[in-house]
Amino acid sequence: MKAHFVAVALAACLVTPVAAADAKIRVVVIDGQNNHKWRETTPFLKKALEQGGRFAVDVSSNVKGAEKAPEGTVPFPPDLSKYDAVVSNYNGAAWPAEFQKDFEHRVRDGKLGFVLFHAANNCFAGWPEFNKMIGLGWRDAKFGDRLYLDGDGKEVRVPKGEGKNTGETNHPYAIVLRDANHPITKGMPKEWMHAKDQLMHNLRGPAENVKVLATAFCPATKANEPIVWTVDYGKGRIVHTPMGHDVFAMSCVGFVTTMQRAVEWSATGNVTVAIPENFPTADKASQFPAEKK
What we know:
By secondary structure, the protein is α/β, with parallel strands linked by helices. The protein is 22% helix and 28% strand. The strands form 2 sheets. The chain has a 9-stranded mixed sheet with strand order 2-1-3-4-12-11-10-7-8, with helices on both faces.
């Protein structure tokens, strides 16, 4: 499938066009280091966000040493004053200290939304404010508390030092809404199938000011693991999902819609992106065809 067809398909199926009077939400995706294929996943995400006109997306790549950033990216670190939201597709070396502080302050003051997905929760274990922002991340059991939902939908907290380290399984799985009234999830089916993806379990962290919007049942833990959640950080709005291992998983209409609505909500507190007609159902995933090489 040609890139043009992918763009048209995303525009037609995923986003309701924005009226000309609506200002675009300015987004910067930070990547450049990751144990996953960021050079493939970031372009897909940028295209998925931009189709429909709600977002204007830049990419800033913090690459290693003499490695070259992709063409068209903005220098790292980006000027955060130019953006309404940051999306992290980054898992690597620490960001510069001044940039960390600027990022903290802007998110805490509600000037900058923050959304992260999948392996972006692996990094920065030694950055206390980042751990507060993400709530839960890929950490060992000694790092922090674990949070999951039991069979009755009640939150269970496992203290740090107890239980197992973070791990993952890999398979399709059902997403179950736990808050169907939040702007991000409102209008979604109570349960919908996600394409084959890694399912992180036993995530650990401060788990403070966390609101679980959706869970996925993990066969390894026999528990309902958080799969979409928000974190209140001062006045800031943060959305975290461990979904999105690769382009195949990200091509799930449910994942793309969740990311679009998460970015809009983190930046504005509201959601105007509609739930598309081809959204997954409880028994059927909805997947974009792979782009032909």
